[in-house]
Design goal:
Strand 15, helix 29 and strand 16 form a beta-alpha-beta unit. The protein has a 6-stranded mixed β-sheet with strand order 1-3-2-4-5-6, with helices on both faces. Helix 5 packs parallel to helix 8 and helix 8 runs antiparallel to helix 17. By secondary structure, the protein is α/β, with parallel strands linked by helices.
Length: 1463
């Protein structure tokens, strides 16, 4: 049947129709709205989108899996085939240019049709399509332009299995395509036909279909190399057919080959499960995939032939638009396209088919006796040869004739450079054939053709398409073959094994940089070599360095050389798709070099030189190899197979010669830049040097592996202040003359350079991060060594080893084992030393003192919480700082924040870390012992936060900023500690000393760098996390910020002093905003909506919106007048609610609730006990109330509606998982918003994100009354045991509620109307549970049932909601810290006077901007970042507010308010 998107001419009606189309809701569409031309084009080569009257598609694609069985209720919106979605999407796009465009639902495929008879099926569909077009009364078949997309597959049985029939298969497939296109050419006038390769999707459907699975039993037997070559061969045949102009003889018909659809491209698109966690069904995800592909197809229709790009789905697609310069759909003719039929300006020289070599060596004898050492191994001693690698070792295409691309599928293993054994050295040069001249009895070489599984592959176990991660499996097969071969004596025969891998890793690195990282590459090689080292005696292993693959780009960019450029890009996209001088290309070169460097480091570590009968030798002849050139200086294609990617026999021969010569060259003198076009003469062993060269017989010493822990300091301005600094707030690094430190064993330097536990009592003070002064910055990174780069006369640093009493400790007065209570004594000792040392001018010299303490207090906290309480800890710090403040002039004190020790626990609970677990109790019993989630660990975690909060309170009180020559600055970088992990995923203990508790020199170097950078950062911009593995570059003072950062030079204002804990009479707030006026005229755009423009307010929700519990004297009644989002009782000064805030801007606001009666509920449609399922009914009721109200102008008044629901859904989830599923929750919200979108004009909707409700467990645990009350209210959160699968499931569902709702709102579904916006307000995402002074949940924020909020809690919700409404999207506060402060309400500003939406926050630019420029931040990145924030919610702790919200509002909190944990 035919359908029309619109028969209306009104633009508003057209937009309304377009709004309803689901297919376009996720895309940026900014094409100028145009109407159909008066006279349609007469030529297909001047065809505009507006000329198209009908859209159709044919193809042998099945409906998505499950669409006909388990998802019958979704058939209207999901379960559609690619054909259906593509037709709908293309028609929707064209409707912007021609509102009267028709779209034809694809005719059904023949039942049981397979790819083997797709011609019959497609021809049937084409005939049916033509008949329906002719019968349709709404179109003129002869005169209307048609857009027809043909999805054609190259897959069939013979192409999957019978390699000998491939050429015939391609021919047959081409003939099948001709039948279908010929029919359309003859029968359909005025048609633009897209030809799209859908092979990959047909293959996937085949695999999913049980009935067809037997016909697909060959799928998976081919490598990716095979797949890419096959794909190209088919496409090349199709392209030649179209370029022949067979279908361009008429001016009203053309066929254009569009880029192939690739399933793997979709795995990275936003919303895909592989990109962010979602809960979509398979059917929904597939339909979204199809929509993305259809938009990609449209975009390629806007691109000239020859410039079409593979589909890129890693960001939200922007729909391409016709331009004034190119308003037409592109054809071969109007693209000025030159045929890619193979033409070349260079003469095709017939390749020599003889690639033999003369061996000039006279001494070809073996050793007199079989050697026992690999370092005395002569070529003739080799009895077994083997090889591992990829298609370059498998020999793909080595003997293929020029232009016979399909033959590259053949693996000519007998010609392989490192292991082939065809014929002999006089005709075929390979390493095996060279060695056979020394030992004719050599075994293991491969002959002929075939895969690694064939007998004639022998010990050539290379696999085409393999990467480094596949080599361990190759090694396993190789070892098994050697063990099972009766000709091989595994124990006594000498073996030569060549390993060459990495090309495929580099070709794919950009698709998964982690998987193909240099670290993983080397780790995989290490795993493979470890097996050989462990299981294969008497072996010499050639590890051939991966080549410099970027040189392949020269062959790709060279013109008229006959190379199949598309195939080259398919085989190696990450190398050939990158643009010149692009970041991607620089990353490729970096990865390539790192591959080479890390493998060299692996070999030079000596890991494989532990026995005398085994070694691994790097053969580097390809390290800096360049593209071979012709005499004209052009890339010489004769060195490559027909695909211009694999080696031809010519290259195989040269590689064999170069490898042989490398093997005879001593280490340190090996060729690493072999010129492949030069004549290579084989070297010979000599009487003086008869052996294959190893590090030992080369007298080669591996480079010193002792790491250098120095740093570079690139600061240009290292001068002191002139005149000298008189204020600590204008202190430059060079002004510091004295450096000192207080602390515990970390600062004392315990175990820094220790390699065993017995040395742990040594204090390496000269290497200490904050005070050590050994050597210089070039090889030892410490804070004093950095400062010595600015002032080489600085004094006070410690050197060497020893205790605090030794003279070389100098001003390092830290003592191992020290706790906070010992710090005042250290301060007094320091004061004494500074006053008495003749090198120090005590009153005149500027001093830097680093203080770091607290680890030992926390390690003992569980043993005596009172002694180690936060109050006692802080009082001891205060005593220390008071001593310094009172008695030390000219001093800047760096107080490094207490470190969170809990992450260090991973070093002792992970057995793979090989840490001394038996020392756990001795080192830090409260952290390293006991079970996960034990009371001790909870206590330590809470104590850590309390220590940190109390110290901030102390310092920010201003106590130490009473004069200009002294200050204390907190350095917070250790607030969030990240444990380093190695390639195995185990903790990397190289950053720690032998006890896995103290830091090694590697760790101290990183700490010193982080501390230096923190000192330069402004107070409110300091880093609050530390990752040992970060590449930390030393910062420099700048011209604008030349001083060490203090509160004053950071323009940081101290927060007001803490209020007393006097009873609060009300929960009102004060608000006085300068921008309170409405817009000068009523706005027509929601993106220009000021608070004062709001005339009407409404709300949907459950009992939290009806305000149950708001009145302490009556916990049952719904006190709607006190509702946070809709209540209007009292005034803002007495009760904080959203309406009371808005009444400050518009006193005539209408719709808010008052009192507790339903009659005075106003537009509060919330109902107690409601779930998301009830929201549609509430929405309909709210619309009815507004429409019938005589107090408002329904069409003209701006409305604000707040929606908050989900608590009851979560609390009842375990009782009916289907009814309360994530999908149902989001679907109900979608239906609710759809009602508003379709029926309400001028609306701003607040969607308040569901909170992390798991904190309810802690509230329930706070008292017996709460436990009893809350269990009845929320059983699904409160009944499961701690760490149970049920609890983990409900927590995941909670996060999915958040993530999926955010996806809905950011999909673009509600953005086509200028007068409508729905904005996620996320203040509840990571809500902080308020604690009282005893560290228990503060129940004053909650009602008696411990589930609903009290009036105080509702007031905090209103404040958070209001502030969220003013905060730009992407910068909204995602937590509510329940603080008591009457001045927390934000105001609109002259720069940002509007309620924030996506567009006015910069993420939805105007159509004009979208069309002309790319946004600085991709919109999809904002969505993904936001969703990632949701999914990380369970990890959110105080540090988010205490660190990143930073110090702007931190200390406005009262003492009580500082005590919080994550809700």
């Amino acid at each position: 049947m035919f359908g029309s998107f619109s028969q209306k001419t009104g633009n508003a009606d057209h937009l309304e129709e377009q709004r309803k189309l689901k297919a376009l809701r996720s895309f940026q569409f900014s094409c100028e709205q145009t109407m159909s031309p008066e006279t349609p084009s007469s030529s297909v080569h001047t065809l505009r989108p507006a000329d198209i009257k009908t859209v159709a598609a044919i193809g042998s694609l099945q409906r998505t899996p499950g669409s006909g069985t388990n998802h019958e209720d979704l058939l209207q919106s999901t379960g559609k085939s690619l054909l259906e979605v593509s037709v709908e999407t293309l028609a929707a796009l064209i409707s912007s240019f021609n509102p009267l465009v028709l779209h034809q639902s694809p005719p059904p495929a023949i039942k049981g049709a397979t790819t083997d008879n797709q011609t019959i099926d497609l021809l049937h569909q084409a005939e049916e399509t033509v008949n329906l077009m002719k019968e349709n009364q709404m179109m003129d078949f002869q005169n209307d332009w048609k857009l027809i997309t043909v999805f054609f597959t190259a897959e069939n049985l013979c192409s999957s299995c019978a390699s000998t029939q491939l050429r015939n298969c391609i021919f047959d497939n081409l003939e099948e395509l001709k039948v279908v296109l010929d029919f359309l050419y003859k029968k359909v006038p005025k048609a633009f036909v897209n030809l799209v390769d859908s092979t990959e999707f047909a293959t996937l459907a085949c695999q999913d279909d049980n009935n067809a699975r037997n016909q697909c039993n060959c799928v998976g037997e081919r490598s990716t190399v095979d797949d890419n070559i096959l794909r190209w061969s088919y496409l090349n045949a199709w392209e030649k057919l179209l370029e022949s102009e067979r279908y361009d003889q008429k001016d009203d018909f053309t066929v254009i080959l569009q880029p192939s659809l690739q399933q793997r491209s979709l795995l990275l698109r936003p919303g895909r499960d592989g990109f962010i966690t979602t809960s979509k069904t398979q059917v929904e995800t597939l339909e979204e995939d199809y929509t993305f592909m259809a938009v990609g197809l449209w975009n390629n229709m806007m691109e000239p032939v020859g410039q079409k790009q593979p589909y890129n789905f890693t960001k939200v697609l922007k729909v391409q638009c016709p331009s004034q310069e190119n308003p037409y759909l592109f054809t071969y003719r109007n693209s000025n396209y030159s045929s890619s039929l193979e033409t070349t300006n260079t003469k095709e020289t017939s390749q020599e088919r003889i690639y033999g070599t003369n061996i000039p060596c006279f001494d070809r004898d073996p050793s007199d006796t079989v050697p026992v050492s690999v370092h005395n191994l002569k070529p003739a001693d080799i009895q077994v040869i083997a090889a591992l690698g990829d298609s370059l070792t498998a020999g793909n295409g080595a003997a293929s004739k020029p232009h016979n691309v399909l033959d590259v599928l053949t693996q000519y293993r007998g010609l392989s450079w490192s292991v082939g054994g065809n014929e002999n050295i006089s005709t075929v040069t390979t390493l095996a054939n060279i060695l056979r001249e020394f030992n004719p009895s050599l075994i293991g070489y491969s002959i002929g053709t075939g895969k690694e599984t064939t007998d004639n592959a022998a010990l050539n176990q290379a696999v085409a398409g393999d990467c480094a991660e596949d080599v361990p499996a190759q090694v396993r097969r190789l070892v098994d073959r050697m063990k099972s071969d009766t000709r091989i004596n595994l124990q006594t025969d000498w073996k030569l094994i060549t390993l060459f891998i990495g090309g495929n890793d580099l070709c794919a690195f950009c698709e998964n940089p982690i998987r193909y990282s240099p670290e993983n590459y080397t780790y995989n090689l290490q795993t493979a070599l470890d097996i050989l080292h462990r299981e294969v005696p008497r072996a010499f292993v050639n590890l051939v360095t991966v080549l410099s693959i970027a040189s392949l780009r020269e062959l790709h960019t060279s013109e008229n050389n006959g190379c199949p450029k598309l195939l080259m890009r398919l085989l190696c996209p990450c190398v050939l798709n990158a643009k010149d001088n692009s970041t991607e290309l620089k990353e490729l070169v970096y990865f390539n070099r790192r591959y080479q460097e890390t493998t060299r480091q692996l070999v030079e570590s000596g890991r494989y030189d532990t026995t005398d009968d085994f070694t691994v030798v790097m053969q580097p002849f390809l390290t800096n190899v360049n593209m071979p050139k012709t005499q004209e200086g052009l890339p010489d294609r004769s060195y490559f197979a027909p695909d211009c990617f694999h080696f031809s026999q010519k290259s195989h021969s040269q590689a064999a010669r170069a490898l042989w010569n490398n093997m005879l060259e001593p280490l340190g003198k090996k060729t690493d830049n072999q010129k492949m076009e030069e004549e290579l003469v084989l070297k010979c062993p000599s009487e003086a040097e008869p052996f294959l060269r190893t590090y030992k017989n080369s007298n080669y010493t591996y480079p010193n592996q002792t790491p250098n822990y120095g740093s570079q300091l690139l600061c240009e301005d290292r001068s002191p202040s002139s005149p000298p600094a008189t204020s600590v707030h204008t202190l430059k690094p060079a002004d510091v003359k004295i450096i000192a430190a207080l602390g515990d064993s970390l600062t004392a330097g315990t175990g820094i350079a220790s390699d065993n536990l017995l040395d742990l009592d040594t204090q390496y003070r000269g290497l200490s991060w904050s005070i050590g002064g050994d050597a210089s910055l070039q090889n030892v990174t410490t804070l004093p060594n950095i400062f010595r780069e600015f002032n080489n006369t600085i004094v006070g640093y410690s050197t060497g080893t020893g205790s605090a009493n030794d003279s070389n400790a100098f001003l390092n007065q830290a003592i191992p084992g020290a706790e906070a209570e010992h710090l005042p004594a250290q301060a007094r000792n320091l004061l004494r030393l500074m006053e008495t040392d003749p090198r120090i001018d005590f009153s005149a010299d500027w001093k830097l003192i680093t203080v770091f303490i607290g680890a030992n207090d926390l390690c003992n906290y569980c043993k005596d919480p009172d002694h180690y309480s936060a109050t006692n800890f802080t009082s001891r710090i205060q005593e220390t700082l008071d001593i310094l403040h009172k008695q030390v002039p000219k001093a800047l004190v760096s107080l490094v924040e207490v470190m969170d020790l809990l992450p260090l626990r991973q070093l002792f609970v992970n057995t793979e870390a090989q840490c001394p677990t038996y020392m756990s109790d001795y080192l830090c019993s409260c952290v390293f012992t006991g079970e996960e989630n034990s009371p001790n660990l909870t206590m330590v975690g809470e104590a850590t936060r309390a220590y940190q909060l109390e110290i901030w309170r102390l310092v920010e009180s201003g106590r130490y900023d009473t004069h200009e020559n002294f200050t204390v600055i907190i350095q917070p970088f250790l607030q969030n500690l990240k444990i380093p992990f190695d390639q195995d995923g185990h903790p990397d203990i190289s950053y720690f000393s032998a006890d896995c508790f103290h830091a090694s020199q590697k760790g101290h170097s990183q700490l010193a760098r982080a501390l230096w950078n923190s000192m330069l950062q402004p107070v409110d911009q300091k880093a609050d996390s530390f990752d040992f593995t970060d590449d930390i570059v030393l910062d420099c003072p700048t011209q604008n910020k030349p001083f060490l950062g203090t509160y004053k030079n950071s323009n940081y204002s101290y927060p007001p002093a803490h209020p007393t804990n006097e009873p609060v009479e009300n929960w009102g707030n004060d608000l006085s905003c300068s921008e309170q006026a409405p817009s000068s005229r009523v706005p027509t755009s929601v993106h220009e909506l000021r608070p004062a423009d709001i005339k009407v307010i409404g709300a949907l929700g459950d009992s939290l919106t009806t305000a149950v519990g708001a009145n302490a004297s009556d916990q049952i009644t719904e006190w709607r007048g006190l509702s946070w989002s809709i209540g209007g009782d009292e005034t803002l000064e007495i009760q904080t609610t959203l309406p009371n805030i808005l009444k400050k801007f518009n006193p005539n606001l209408f719709g808010f609730s008052t009192g507790s009666s339903k009659e005075t509920a106003g537009f509060n449609a919330a109902e107690g006990g409601a779930t998301a399922r009830n929201m549609s009914a509430q929405a309909h009721e709210l619309v009815r109330l507004m429409r019938n109200s005589s107090k408002i102008n329904f069409k003209e008044d701006w409305k604000l509606i707040t929606v908050f629901v989900g608590g009851n859904d979560l609390c009842q989830y375990c009782l009916d998982k289907e009814a309360y599923s994530v999908q149902k929750y989001v679907k109900h919200l979608q239906n609710t918003l759809d009602i508003f979108y379709e029926e309400l004009p001028r609306v701003f909707v607040n969607m308040v994100e569901i909170l992390e409700i798991s904190g309810l467990r802690q509230i329930a645990a706070s008292s017996l009354e709460c436990a009893l009350a809350a269990k009845d209210v929320c059983p699904c959160f409160l009944n499961p045991e701690e760490n149970s699968s049920e609890l983990q499931e409900i927590k995941r569902v909670n996060r999915d509620f958040q993530a999926e709702t955010l996806q809905l709102l950011n999909s673009g579904r509600y953005e086509k109307r200028e007068d409508f916006a729905v904005v996620m307000q996320p203040f509840f995402r990571n809500t902080l549970l308020p604690l009282d002074s005893n560290g228990k949940p503060d129940l004053s924020f909650f009602a008696a049932d411990c589930f609903h909020f009290s009036a105080r809690g509702y007031a905090e919700m209103a404040v958070a909601l209001w502030n969220n409404m003013l905060e730009p999207v992407g910068e909204k506060q995602t937590y509510n810290n329940f603080t008591r402060d009457r001045s927390k309400l934000k105001c609109p500003s002259s720069e940002k006077p509007f309620l924030s939406t996506l567009r006015n926050s910069g993420f939805r630019n105007s159509d004009l901007i979208l069309e002309k420029t790319e946004p600085s931040v991709p919109y999809w990145a904002v969505i993904v970042a936001a969703v990632a924030g949701v999914l990380a919610g369970s990890l959110f702790i105080w540090f988010v507010s205490g660190g990143r919200a930073k110090r702007r509002q931190r200390k406005t909190d009262t003492e009580r308010n500082m005590n919080m944990v994550s809700l």
